[in-house]
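Agenda item 2: pyridoxal-5'-phosphate complex prediction
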Amino acid sequence: MPQRYAVPYSPIGSRLDESDVAAVREVMLSEATLSQGLVRERFEAAFAEHIGVRHALSVTSGTVALELAIHLLDLVPGDEVITTPQTYQATIQPLLDRDVRVRFADVDPTTANIDPERVAELVTPRTRAIIIVHYGGLPADMDTLLRVARDHDLILVEDAAHALGSVLHGHRPGGIGHIGCFSFHSSKNITTLGEGGMITTDRDDWAERLRRIRGNEADMVLTPRRGGFAKSSGPPPGALYPGEAYTHDCLRFRRAGTNATLSEAAAAVGLVQLGKLPKLVARRQAIAARLMTELAEFDTVRVPVVPTGVEHAFHLFTFSVDPLCIDRDELVRCLAAEGVETYLRYFPLHLLPEWRARGHDYGECPAAERSWFLEHMNLPCHPRLSDTQVELLATALNCALTKVTRR
Ligand SMILES: Cc1ncc(COP(=O)(O)O)c(C=O)c1O
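Presented output:
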């Protein structure tokens, strides 16, 4: 029997109301197509404008966005990719299928974001890309990361699954590096009916390639067909398919296509949700501010540091304890007894069995390891919490910390 919490972590990270239902109803009852139609185009245009990029291409999940983004890197055996251990496995899972070397750069313990200095140390002549995450919605140090990428001619991929609604000195995550990937999973800052994702980029050639792959066309380099025929003159004798579709031949094949089409109904909800984003993020920020005030009373905990010029979307509210004074696991149990559900995110990726089988091990990223095993935890911080629940949470937090702190 699952435990019922007075202050739960919600499986839905956004708020849905009649406006979302109306958008779905309109699509369903229209005579327009339910796939690859105008609503998707409008959602993508609005998203591109919001992020400040030339192209936004919707797909069926954040996982697929990352898979396709990694495909665009055109990695060859022996190439190296630098990434963070502090993320969900989807960030780098596609790399398991490739004969490439993954280098995990440890995180900055004050932000849980990848440490650019560690990244710079790991660059070799074989490095091709850096894949970063804006952990919990706090933008990573993109200025320094971009400098490292520029100095070594590397592609910088942003997993911005947590960071929709965040701002870094006037720029939006997902539009700062070379490729951005977003998730509209049920738990995220906005959702497209539970699943969905977006890829953002300024590069026209990448957008063109993505358009093909997500729509079941192969990703290939095309060349005009020798002896190709004009529509007016009709197909050559024996040709099965008339028209202009086959006036090109494949010069180089990169990968098969897939169907990653976000449905019109999902895109319609995405448009409505994008309109609500400022309010949804403001609510997350207000809850985070309340929790930070409560935590400020304790010198045995570390709260998120939000630098000036930065807006933290607080997809996650994370704080760390001083393990010499607080047993983190005891704090988790104590909060549960007070009715507060907590999560630990994320288990260091390099210690997952699949990455250990590839030679990664304990000690590789000490800050991420210490954080997971001893220090960090995530509290509920989502727009579905009522004011009463937020106050319950703050009181329970104070009470639990007072109880478990050793002096
Ligand atoms: C950091 C991060 N990247 C990628 C994903 C994958 O997104 P999706 O669940 O939409 O496939 C998630 C979450 O679910 C995530 O938290």
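Discussion summary: The chain has a mean pLDDT of 95.
Owner for follow-up: CH.
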